[in-house]
Amino acid sequence: MRDGLATHLAALWRYGLVLSGNRDVAEDLVQATCLRALERRSQFQPGTRLDRWLFSILHSIWINEVRARVVRQGAGFVDAELALVVDGGREIETNILASQMLTEIGRLPEAQRETVLLVYAEGYSYREAADHLNVPIGTIMSRLAVAREKLAQATGDRPAKEEDETRDRDERR
């Protein structure tokens, strides 16, 4: 388990950063994820993908933290999709274009941002992302289409529709 954790630390940190928008919070999420994974290693099913299990743990910790923070602030319960504020997009990358793109991704609603990360950064298939997020594959495709359009508008580019349509068609198979 420890060796497996070590190989996935960078991906966990990226996922934590996408969810929280803050480097320190991302590091805390990774640490909490590693601790929980070690404590509950008996729950891991051999033969399944460790990275998917770790991403699920991190996501659960994040959602619990968002809900707890809102309750502590006296605001009651909130939909996690509305609970993110990104701060520090320019600190993420020194490259101006990369920084701009990461900032724009950070402005996406959490569901779209998370889907973009899973499919484009972590290489999940549409089916794997749908299973991980417990949504239909069509929802993944819709989130990505909307996210691509928003990112294209924000950066002044036109989305590569042919390439996206080909990928969407291939993913449905």
From TrEMBL:
Residues 101-151 form the RNA polymerase sigma factor 70 region 4 type domain. Gene3D superfamilies: 1.10.1740.10, Winged helix-like DNA-binding domain superfamily/Winged helix DNA-binding domain. Keywords: Sigma factor, Transcription, Transcription regulation. CDD domains: Sigma70_r4 (cd06171). The keyword Protein transport does not apply. Residues 151-173 are annotated as: Disordered. Residues 158-173 have a biased composition (Basic and acidic residues). Pfam families: PhyR_sigma2, Sigma70_r4_2. Residues 5-59 form the PhyR sigma2 domain. Belongs to the sigma-70 factor family. ECF subfamily. This is RNA polymerase sigma-70 factor (ECF subfamily). It comes from Kaistia dalseonensis.
